[in-house]
Amino acid sequence: MAKTDILLESGTNELEILELFITGRSASGGDPEQSFFGVNVAKVMQVIESPQLTPPESASNECYMGTISLRKHIVPVLDLAVWLGIEREPHPFEVVMVTEFSKAVTGFLVSGVTEIHRVGWGDVAPPHEYVSRMGSTSIIGMVNRNKHFIQLLDLEQIITSLEMDSTRFDIAPETVASRKYRALVVDDSPTIRMMLSRNLQAANFELQVTGNGQEAFEYAQHIAEKAENEGRPVQDYLDIVIADIEMPLMDGFTLTRRIKEDDRLTEIPVILYSSLITKELRHKGESVGAVDQISKPDMDQMAERAISILEGKKLQGL
Fold it and tell me: Which residues belong to any copy of the Response regulatory domain (predicted)?
């Protein structure tokens, strides 16, 4: 499966998701039930037939099934059903979805895949609006397609929770701001919000944290109106916006574009981040006005790079 970009055009609030399903045993003893999930196509390297791995007895987590060799990678394979608390109904045609993001290649065992959907982030409802069968923090949103709901998976949350990702961005920053800066932090993942908040607060940032781009833009507009009413520059209330790219309701590209189109907010710098920053995505970020873009494995540099932008220092590698 060829990779595509996370968003199809700059600031269009759209993405493509691969729909997959897990067939679980019915709690009532009836026919097996299918649960449908979605992942960003850009993170999928390929889908292969399941090698029918037998989980090792010494596995550190019950969802770990072993490893496979693929394209010079040694790929750990996780049973997604176990992680989500589904009693999977085994069958001989299961597949492994191999993903690549955050500098890590990981396989997820699922019952099968169906098709690719093009959706808008505005069509993605936050999971709290529905009763998710799993009740899992790994579900970041819900999409209604073909008379059933597709639950969008936060694969980074799964990897982080299993401590399979060596990335650490909750460590103390090396640089501390010379004065208190006010940052708007935007991410739908509670884990990422917590880690990023620790990093920035330790670097002398005061934070306003929101869960998606729509909430963030509404907050930014509120700040702009307050500044107007009080006859003060907006920078008296907000210095910088730091946002994830992939979020329900409004993605980071669209958020950046709308901030830059608002004359009251256009001077506020925006840093975007994602587990996947390609050359094409970097170009898209630049086209909507992002001042910097950071991949999640490098997010331990977030405070330093934000301070460099605000204090006019030259960023390394930009």
Answer: 182-311
